[in-house]
Amino acid sequence: MSVPSSPDTDRPDRQDSPARSDGFIRGLSEAIGGPLGTHAAANDRPSGVRRGFWTAARIVLALCCLVLVLHYIQKSPCRDGDWGSNIQYTRFCYSDVLALYYADGLSEGKVPYQEFPVEYPVLTGIFMGLLGLPIHALGQRYPEMNQGQAFYDVNALVLCALAVATCACLLSLRRRRPWDAAMFAVAPMLFITTTINWDFLAIGLATFGMLAWARRRPVLAGVLIGLGAAAKLWPVFLLGPLLLLCVRAGRLRAGITTAATAAVAWIAVNAPIYILYPDNWGRFAELNTTRPIDWGTLWYIGRWFDGKWNSGQPGDQGPFQWLSDHVEPHLNNVTLGLFILCCLGVALLIVLAPRRPRFAQVAFLVVALFLISNKVWSQQFNLWLLALIVLARPKWGAFLAWQVAEFAYFTAFYAELLGAGGRQVIPEGTFVLASTLRLVTVAVLVGLVIRDILKPENDPVRQTYDDDPDGGVLDGAPDVRGFPFGRRRVDPPAPAEPPPPVPAAAG
To answer: Which of 109, 122, 315, 504 is 20 to 30 Å from the Cα of 462, by its Cα?
Structure first.
């Protein structure tokens, strides 16, 4: 069965050029003579850069591969597992992948969930076992083999392949804006966090699911998003905004189909483990319930400031110090309540926005607000937002500010870990400053996406596409504003005019 074509079909005169449409890139381009001129731009369409092998998409994919190779080189000092003298912190090369190969018993041939509990959702545990158990078997046959190094290398290969596939999905979703995917491909955080944990398993599945939804395959989209949620929790957050968008567009059947198939896929993965090993299956939920305030979160920052005015002793505690001492149930209830309030705010935004928001915009908002409000914000969690912000707001200025803040936090985090081991490298206040900058830059991105939703004429994607290239059945669908408070149809906008020609640069 053929996939229905989008009402907003590709047109050569609507190809985006960042040097003309993005103020930050336009400013940088002045150093090399300014944006492409009228004749050059016309000759380059629709390939995006030039005719021949090196199209924009291939350049972006090559950049992504180059960054991932550099990532592997950067992490190589830790590959052999010889972490004496805290090399994993001084060389910034720590990885849960290698650490948990030994800590979780994979190096002894133990089967995840059957013989030991796993601290991650089921699909991630299965992934660990599928790659780890064959490595252990080979290690038994070839004792001279470094099992931990082999396990890391195999995982790095698969995770990097998922990162490249994610980049390819972004290119497929933005055929008129191929340079948007370069934000993902050259992101500093892709360079230093790709293989810290198994997050790209969920990121890849969720991005594939968004591509399937954009291609109007709601069942496949649900299966992929459900599998993503079985690897990490956050992909399930995509479903709530999607359902509300479908209600506003009168396409609820497709949304329910996706949500239902996601639930079926999640249950299909989890049910066998839950039935056979219920105690080990529940380890993930147990850890999330009992886990204290984590490094660099809003609650960590607040507790540090509390410590400036209060001793922290019973009877002399600030609110964040008190919550830190009462994780169950008070801190858990506060973080959950705050996230629910954030979700209600996103729901009102979807309902009352002057024009139906794009799927990627509200997906980014929900995941970003979860990180801001949560008590855990691990260093690699920023990868959850990377593909989403490229789809939600492909503007380089604020994006690079966020990436600089993330890089500063990353380096400060490792310095703080060294200090926790008795070797102070930086004052704790410096780490709190880096944590605050990360929090503020993500909050700024949230605010900018909300502004684009409230003023859709400022949305860079809608300056290239008539509606929502990620919307699938929502793309070009009728728009009704104000449900359930009173329905008012929003007339579809006229197709956007192509940008005016730019005179060719002198010389």
So the answer is: 504
